[in-house]
Amino acid sequence: MHSHWGEAIHLLCGKEFTQSSQLNKHQFVHSDKKPFKCSDCGKNFKSTGDLLRHQPTHTGERPFSCTVCGKRFTNSSQLSEHQRVHTGERPFICSECGMRFIRSRSLISLQLVHTDKRPFKCADCDKSFKCKRELLSHQSTHTEKRPFTCSACGMEFTVSCNLLKHQRTHTGEKPFVCPMCGKGFIQLSQLNKHQLVHTDKRPFKCSDCGKNFKNTRNLLTHQRIHTRRGHSAAPCVGRVSLG
After folding, report:
1. Cross-strand pairs, 177
2. How many alpha carbons fall within 13 Å on the CB side of residue 46?
3. By the 8 A CB rule, do 75 and 64 touch?
């Protein structure tokens, strides 16, 4: 911490605060400490703001409503994030490939694609994943518990977000709409992948030959060329369809 002319500056990130108490609260962002505990479920949070945003999940209260589609949310930040689906605003930009996102967590997930980092580790088998969603899906292989059940078909899920995505296959809801062509998608990740169709960006690079692709599926299909040949030094021939 460094103070200058009534301002408190965090040395790790350079963020400035007018009061030292604000800096003290901010420092939890850079640590693993979560001192604020939910009295209902025991979950811990880094700030009182995070705790307050979490608590309505126990009451079911959703006081914030979207004026465009009527969807309701537990807090104003969720509403603001959702409204970008309608406006097309994508304020989070990847410095590696230029892809833009509605949510900061989507940007963080993509940035891991550009690296070999797998920070989410399974406590049962030590397998590692690039995002928390992949870890949660994987953990279902270690347990038979599937507490989230679809009321339409009875299919069971380990996490609520997977149930929500599945339910859209029954309702036909496609809340994520491409601002370029109007095509709708069940999941935000599907929209993000689709939008590359409208650009010349090819952010997924083959580590063997350097060839670039618009999505991971085409990259994985291409990499079989190197596997079939038995060695990675072989030159690439042919082109993987981007259709």
Report:
1. 184
2. 10
3. yes
Read off φ and ψ for residue 162, nearest 5 degrees. Answer: -70, -35
Each residue's pLDDT tens digit, 211-242: 888 777 888 888 888 877 654 444 444 333 33
Average pLDDT, the chain: 77
The single-letter DSSP state of residue 195 is G
Exposed/middle/buried for residue 212 (C-beta within 10 Å: 0-12, 13-18, 19+): middle
- So where are the chain's domains? 2-59
CA distance 156 to 139: 14
Kindly report which listed range (19-28, 36-45, 99-108) carries the lowest average pLDDT score. 19-28
- What CA–CA distances, in Å, run from 173 to 78, 177, 184? 19, 11, 9
Residue with tokens 């689709």: 194
Compute CA distances 51 → 56, 58, 79, 174, whole Å. 9, 12, 17, 30
**pLDDT higher than threshold 70 for residue 29:** no
Q: What is the rounded distance in angstroms from the CA atom of residue 201 to the CA atom of residue 55?
A: 41
| Assigned superfamily of 2-59 | Classic Zinc Finger (3.30.160.60)
Apex 220 CA angle, 214 and 221, nearest 5: 95
Question: Which residues are within 8 A (CB) of 130 and not within 5 positions of it... i.e. 6 or more apart?
Answer: 109, 112, 113, 117, 118, 119, 120
Q: What are phi and psi of 188, to 5 degrees?
A: -65, -35
Please check whether residue 68 is in contact with residue 84, taking contact to mean a CB–CB distance below 8 angstroms.
no
